Amino acid sequence: MRVLFWGTPDFGLPSLEAMRAAGHEIAGVVTNPDRPAGRGRGGRGRALRASPVKRWALEAGVPVLQPSRPGEGTFLDEARRLGPDISVVAAYGRILPSEALDLPPLGSLNVHASLLPALRGAAPINWAIIRGHRETGVSIQRMVVELDAGPVLGQTRIPIHATMTAGELYGEAAAAGGARVVAVLAEVAAGRALETPQDDTRATWAPKLDRGAARIDWSRSAEELGRWLRGCDPWPAAWTSLAGRSVQCFEPAIFPAREVGGGEAPDAAAPPGTVLEAHPVRGLSVATGSGVLQVGAVKPAGGRRMASAAWVRGVADLKGARFD
Question: Domain 212-313 carries which CATH code?
Answer without folding.
Answer: 3.10.25.10
